[in-house]
Every structure is written in structure tokens, then in C-alpha cells.
Amino acid sequence: MNFVKSRGLTLKKAVSPAAAVLALIVVGLIPSFNPGPVPAYLTITSVTILFYIVMSVSWSIFSGPTGYVSLAAAAFYGVGIYMSVIFGGSLPLPVLMLLGGVASFVLAALIGAITLRLRGVYFTIFTFGLVQLLISLVLWYEVKINNVVVRTIPSVGYNTVFYALFVLMVLVILAAIFIKRSRFGMALTGIGECEDAAAHIGVNTTVVKVIAFAVTAFAMGAAGAARATTMISVKPEIAFNVLESFLPVLMVIFGGTGSLLGPVVGAVIFSVLKEQLITKWPKWYMIIFGTVMILAILLLPKGIVGAVKEVPGIAKKLLLLLMTLIFAAVGYVFNSILAASGVAVSGLVFALLFGIIGFIISVHLLKHLMKKAWKGAKIDANA
Amino acid sequence: MPMLEATGVSKAFGGLKAVSNVDIHVNEGEILGLIGPNGAGKTTLFNLLSGAYQMDSGTVTFNGTRISGMKPNQICRLGIGRSFQTAKNFAGMPVWQNVLMGALFGKKGQTAAQASKIVDEVLEFVGLAELRNKMVPDIPLAYQKRLEAARALATRPKLLLLDEVMAGLNPSEVSEAMELVTKIRQSGITIIMIEHVMKAIMNICDRIVVLHHGAKIAEGTPQEIAANKAVIEVYLGEC
Predict the structure, then answer these.
(1) ipTM reported for the complex, 2 dp
(2) Which of A164, A371, B13, B205 would suit a FRET pair with B55, their CA atoms being 20 to 30 Å apart?
(3) Do B90 and A197 touch (CB under 8 A)?
């Protein structure tokens, strides 16, 4: 058992950074596939994906280890958007992002200092309320003082936004790795495991929580400022859209908590699914989205990455991947059959949906088949 | 001068006076026992001393520094470690990492090398070295309580507050725990312990304070306490 574990670790140590760098290079090349003036659909989608990776990784840096479920993502995202609303056009994008980040950082530090005494669900409710408060506050300002509710932001071009978010994503991922391995990260984990014990061995729990909350808010605010420049118009309900608070949470749950890869995988799959459903199947978007989420929570409690990690051995992991791909291909073919009768939706949508459901089925099938093997092995070990 | 001195400490939860006007002190090198029936306010007093609760009135000084009003992490860094009545360990971490947390955060500017040296020493000292790689839920209760003491010891305390480390242990485990407490004192750490196991209290404490309904009703050596009328009445009823 120990042997297997240590071998897996050394393999992982060598392979995963190399694979990560390779993946980053490939992603970084996306805009160059389409050098023309009109942005490619791939670039536009990639901007959304990068944005959600930043949001969900940031969310998981604070809420993952501490267990403080924050629904304030939309608040920080919206603050970032309004920084671009106010200063857009006169300042370059990196400065806008810095402003959005700093404004969110300050807001989070203030809010955190007041509310991080609240534990559990009370904290969650407060952060949810914060978003509502900001909507009303900004709306009041726009109506009574500014006299303009719908605002526009000068575009800076999708390629610029892509690279800005790409750099932000790399920074956020590096921050996540650094924090996880640092003393600060251990303090966060300690708070999540047992806050009283952490406080009594010398961890300044309030300061640790507030700093982590504010640092991740910085990334969310910066991401909001960047994404704002791709929006046609902005009003408070859109900038502080509550859905943006829930999406990072759902993406992390879907991808898997406890690892860095989980939020990334969750963000990629969920944002593609969301984008595809909204554009290709808007009538069914919410109900399908909700169904997938319920299935994932019930049947994949540790998320996609957690489920894959539980599958022992590379061979069985590849088998799982193969089965998932087969399901996805069936989905794609299914769409073609529908196309023949003239009611096609989208090959990608069906491939994704079939793939997700196929993955869930395959995981449980493999688990069921292997349980017998595991039980046999246990009896051997006891004897 | 006593190492820790609490004067006129009171704490009420709504209408319930959990601790009222209690004075206690502990001298350097002593083992002070804190006993009393269930609900007497022993754990609340610990929570006040360690900063988990803020007291309504009264002051506590530790080596001349006023610690009442400070936060738990500040009090810990001054040199007071504690264990909890219901073992509060970091359940998602292995044994050694629980102790490492104490070593890393207990004192300012502790390097990783120093901390891991402390972990080895403490695990050896409390007898958990063999279980260092086990996860907390996988070890017996007696060891979980020991681990709490280990985590507190890793913060390098001058004073250790032990809250019922022997509750729920079988007689041989109690003897082992008594040995450990004596060993901790011999290493130069002052101890205040809450305990219901009378054998332990009577044998290892230098002095005992008895609480009842939040008030101190007696104080003295084990022999004095065993003969004290008020204490016998509280424990056995009037006779």
C-alpha cells in the first residue's frame, strides 16, 4: 500500500507540473488561432472559461479549507465591474483590474472584519445579503444622483481581455499553490478543522480569515473589471448578479473540493455547458443545469476530481476516461440523428450532457465492480 | 508571587451565573486540581483563563501581565496551553501534523526545522511516536486526549490547563495518564487540571480548589479537601 502511494507521488511530482505548463502554453496560444479583427468564438468562450477559473479557484482558496461558504463573489465581481464603468476608456485594462482588485480587497477586509466572527450558515447568509445590499445601494445612487442606470464600458478587444485574464488565472493558481503549502494555508486548514483548537495554539484566526477573504476578493474584483469590458451594457442587477455568487460554489462542488484541479475542472466544464445551453437551448437552460447539479451532488459527492482520485490505478482511470468519451460520442451521434428529423440542438451540448451522465454511470459501475475485489483483498490482509 | 492569579472572576450566561467572584492562583511548579460537581463552572473558568470567553468582571494576571481581555492566540503565545473537555483535534490531519500545528503557531518566528524537532520530541515525550502517521479518528480516545496535551505542549507553554484528560479512560489508561501529568510537571511546566477521577486528583495534586454553582467553596491540600465538610456535602448531599 505504501509502496503504491509513494510511487504514485513521485510520478505525479514529475508529470503534473510539466503537464500544467504544457496546458498553459496551449491555452495561451488560443487567440493566435484567429488573428483577424473579429474575435473568434473560441476566444470569446475562453474568456468566459478563464473568468470562471479565476472565480472558482479564488473562492476555493478561502472557502475550501476554512469551510466558511461565501456567497459574496458577486459583490466583489460587481465592484470590479463598476470600477471599469467609472474609469473605463480613460485607463488601460491592467490599471482597471488593479483598481477593481483593490476596491474589492478593501470591501472584503471591512466586511470580513465585521462578519467573520459569524460562523457557519450565518456567515453565508450575510454574504448573500451583502450582494442584495450593493444592488440597492448602487441602484439608488444611479437613479437619485447619477440619473443614469444603464451604463456602457468601452471595449478593449477580446484578445486583450483574454491575455489579461490568462495572466490573472496563472497568478491565482500560483497563489493557491503557494498558500496551500505555506504556514498561512495550514492556519486556514486548522480553522476549518477546529477553529477553537487553532485559536488556542496561537493562530490569530480573525486576521488569517480576513486576509484570505480579502486576497481572494482582490482576484474576483480584478476578474470583474476585465470581464466588464466585454459587456455591452451594465446595470446594478447585472453587475451584482446573484448567480455569479452561486456559480463558483457549484463549480467547485462539481469539480471537487480539496484539490486545486477540482475548481479548474469544474469551472471549465460548467462554463462551457452554461454557455452552450444559454445560446443553443435557452428554454431548457435552467432546468438542465439544475438537474445536472443535483445529479452531481447526489452521485459525485467528492466531485469529478475526487471521483477520479478514488479509482485505483492508471489503467482503470483510462478506462473511465474511455467510457466517458464513448458516452460523449453517443451524445454527439444522438444529436445527428435528431438533426435528420430536423430538431437538432447542438452536438456539443449533447456530447457534454451524455459525457457527464456517462461519467457518473461509469464511476458507479467501476466502483461496484471493484468493491468486490477490494473486499477480497481485505479478507486476505486480515488472514 | 503566584504564576497565575485570578481575582473576582465572574461570568454569567443570561441569568445563569456560571462563575461568580472566583479567586484562584497557581504557583510555579505546582499541580492545582479543580474539582466540583457537573455544572459547577470548571470548564467555564478554563474558558475564561484561556480567553475563549470574555469575563464580565475580574482580572487575571500571568507572570505579572494582565491577560484578561486578551484573545486566545495572544494568551497562548504568552505561555498558557490548554486541552479541551471533548477532544478538539484536527481530524483531517495525521497525529504528527496536529502537533506540528502547535509547534508552528505556538511561538513567534518558529522555523520549520525547529518545529519538526519539537514534534519529534513531544511525540516521544507523550508516547505517541508510534502512532505519528495515523489519522486522528483512527486512534483510541485515550490517545486522542494525549494528542491534545501533546499539541498544547508543542506550543512550549509555561502553564498547562488540562480539562478532564482522564474522563472515559479505563483504570490502566488512567494510571498512564497520571504518569504523563507527573512527567509534564517534572519537565518544569505548571499545571491546572479539571478532573473527576478522584484517585488521580488526590494523588498528584499539590492543592485543590472546589467549585460549586460557580463559586469557590473550598481550597487546600488533598487531605484538607477530603476532610472538608462543605465538600462532602456537595458531593454526597447533607448528612
Answers:
(1) 0.90
(2) B205
(3) yes
